[in-house]
Amino acid sequence: MGLDSVELVMAIEEEFGLDIPDRDAEKMITVGDVFEWLRVRLSTADPRACLTQRVFYKLRRALIENYNVSRHTISPDTRLTELLPLSVVEEGWPFLQMFIDLKTPPFKVANEFLGYRLSEQSLTMRELVQSLIKLNDEEFAPQHESEREIWDRLVRVFVRQANVRPEEVVLGASITRDLGVD
Question: Hey, which end of the chain has fewer CB within 10 Å, N or C?
Fold first, then answer.
């Protein structure tokens, strides 16, 4: 998988709050393959569990984009202080807030963040995700989406990531050949 493909998979994971295993991603040749995979997973998934994943992927992508952190160094149990010094996080916090597009509390290095005391036992990504969900609870009413809603969201991801027109994103379109994702 090329860099464009990896970024596309990450964007789909973030949008839908699902982890796409590499073995499944490699089988996704057409837009229809991606849609069918999503349709099946989302119809059986617990909406609340998907929410945790969606917020985690959104936060992980924001950390990658804003702080140039490696994707593979960020897991739910990763401590924020393992990734970056707190002063760096504090300086970039306003940009992180804009990127994740969720309500976030002000960041304070002064020993406390989201009600947690920061030390060598500092905040994990899992704790941060749970805090963001709690703070944005009214935004995240659990629900299953219709196939049309899934399709519309998927099209927006392809348009954004592959820089194509919406009418080019059709079920039979080859992701590499027709949409130019390598």
Answer: C
Residues 128-182: pLDDT tens digits? 888 888 888 777 655 667 899 999 999 999 999 999 999 999 999 999 999 999 8
The β-bridge partners of 30 are 174
Tell me the C-alpha distance between 60 and 70, whole Å.
9
124: which strand partners? 79
pLDDT tens track for 60-70: 888 888 888 88
**What predicted TM-score, i.e. pTM, was given to this entire model?**
0.57
Q: In the chain, at which residue ranges do the beta strands (DSSP E only) sit?
A: 112-113, 116-117
- For tokens 């060598």, the residue is 120
Give Cβ neighbours of residue 63 (< 8 Å, ≥ 6 apart): 69, 74, 83, 96
How many whole angstroms from its chain centre is CA 81? Answer: 20
CA distance 175 to 29: 6
